[in-house]
Design a protein that fits this description.
single chain, Rhopdopsin 7-helix transmembrane proteins, G-protein coupled receptors family 1 profile domain-containing protein, membrane
Length: 343
Amino acid sequence: MSTSLPSAAIQQSFIGASLNSTVMGTFLMGIYTMFYFGTVYLYRKSSSINVFKIPTKRAMLVNRSRSRQRMVLATITALYLDAVFQIGLQWHALTRAFVANGTTQGDIFVALLVNPVWFAAVNTLSQVLILILADVLLIWRCYFVWNRSVRAILLPGLLLVAEIGLAIAIVVLILVDSSNVTDEGVRVQTLVQLTLFCVSLATSIAATLLIGVRIHSVSKRSRRRFRHVIEIVVQSSAIYSLALIFQVACNVRPVSLADTVYVAYISYSSALTFVIAGLVPTVMVARVCVAPDDNSQLSTNQHVSRLQFQGQSASHNSEVGMSSAGETDVAIILPPPEEKNTA
């Protein structure tokens, strides 16, 4: 068995990359945990409403806003729990390699390289679920920004459906090819995985552009006030897209264990990508909660949220006019200032 294994230097490099990338991922999860609980606290605090101070005419708006707040909290919580589960899987792999099969360096190498079928399928499903949840949250925001227009989110929605289909295909390929692993099967899995990351990247970019265009078009008279909103969305999407590009680079060419630098890059970038995929939407919510009101608040005569636009007559100069939509909801992105003041 030992004659078929790579050299000791290659084994050490692979084991070191696997161990150190898991430690790095754990450290990043500590940062993620801090941001997650801090974001939940800030979001709950900024969304707390004194019902006795709310006019009757705004009761429906408050109830609708609360349902959206629950959606945001549920999604970022699901992202966090999935990331925790992902770290747990990586530590399980290390425990199996070093504790259960840690007799020799060769045994550790083989245990890290060859995983059980169930582990490969669950690990892959957990990873792609993080990407899907992040894209769902972004598309959901885009849907409300465009006044619940299905037509507006048609492109990112179709890309999301394709993303889900590719995710299912990867898991099925892992289960089907487990009994007879071939070079062709590995090549097909790599191609499908590469396509998945590209589709997720396109989904993120499309939804971000739609959000930015909508906010920009409805706030021409208050562009400076809402500039920071676009900046938050674009910056978050840019970081997320960069993480996906790292994963695309991991699948553009075949992997050789002799190429120790490339193998290490795959280990570290994978640990980084799937933490960032959950962390970025959470940080965006946190940044929105602590955003200054004076840069985005509308006139006191509007009785609307920080990005709750009410289309009315053009004679009302204090309001942002809309050509066709009766109301454009961007309150998903920003909590209403009235809610922050009563917190």
